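Human: Can I borrow your eye for a moment on a structure tokenisation matter? Separate attempts, laid side by side, tell us more than any discussion would. Could you pick a protein and write out its sequence and tokenised fold? No explanation is needed for now; the record alone will do.

Assistant:
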Amino acid sequence: MQPTMCSRCKKHVAVVFITRLENGTSKNDGLCLKCAKDLGIKPIDDMMKKMGITDEDLESLTHEMMTAFGGAEGLDSLLPAKEDGDDGEDDGRTATFPFLNQLFSANSGEKRGEKVPPAAAQKSERAPKRKFLENYCISLTRRAQEGKLDNLVGRERELQRVVGALDSDGIVIYPTDSVYAFGCSLRSVKAIERLRRLKGKNEFALVFADLAQVAEFCRVDNAAFRILRRNLPGPFTFVLPASSRVPDKTLGRRKTIGVRIPAHPVARAVVGALGCPLVTASVRVDDDVTEYMTDPELLHERYGREVSLVVDGGVGDLVPTTVVDLSDGEPEILREGKGELQ
């Protein structure tokens, strides 16, 4: 379709098109993303919430769209949208999103079971389309090639086996986005005590499913929450003041606890299915060796008699998490690791 300018601000490319009724006649308006959001068009609000797009992201998205169309040099080629009626309320309007459908929808223009002709396939690979897809969409094919898709799809039985072990006061070794780790249920006093004896010290962190769960077990102020939101899920351990819901067995003599939300499908699936945080500690060969064990078969060979099971997530990483103290005002990096603080 021929690109047009937003009929409201006349500064950006129109990507949302609404039809409104005026005196019994249908009239069309073209709006940019920002103006559509300002007018409170519900599908735009729903899309932003679903994709986690903030107002700041929306500004950047609008700017990148203009850049993709050629920036200021390409504005002359854009036709202004028709200025029918006012730009106030959207009662009686319906909205269509042809440009956004190309941006965010998978398999657009391709019917199920239908082969794409070679000419059409070449046309779909033009540079501008790839640019939009790379900037605003997730390529599942690429993520599969990189091994980043959820490895638990179709593995419900194995997941329930892990949860069963944890519910039975067991300790498991599981993969994370950094190194392999020991884990046990926060509800199991026996398992926490066994983990303390296994590690020889009482320095544990908690693995959470999401930030809402973090807020149940830790005291999180607004500044700390913003930092957590920017960096999690990811290879970080954030030190926060613990609430009364964290057992003394986990804290020892401390009043703070390490917080983890790993960017790893196995770890997060286990916590989600368990229904409570995991008490966790990184796996080391012994206290005198700093290198972490990365091979799940060797982990089973070394710890098979002391843990209920080892979850095979492939070869693990050698780099531990970045540890950041958020318990007292300004963030303080206690240990440099895999994560880069945002």
The two ends are 39 Å apart (CA to CA). The first strand starts at residue 4 and ends at 5.
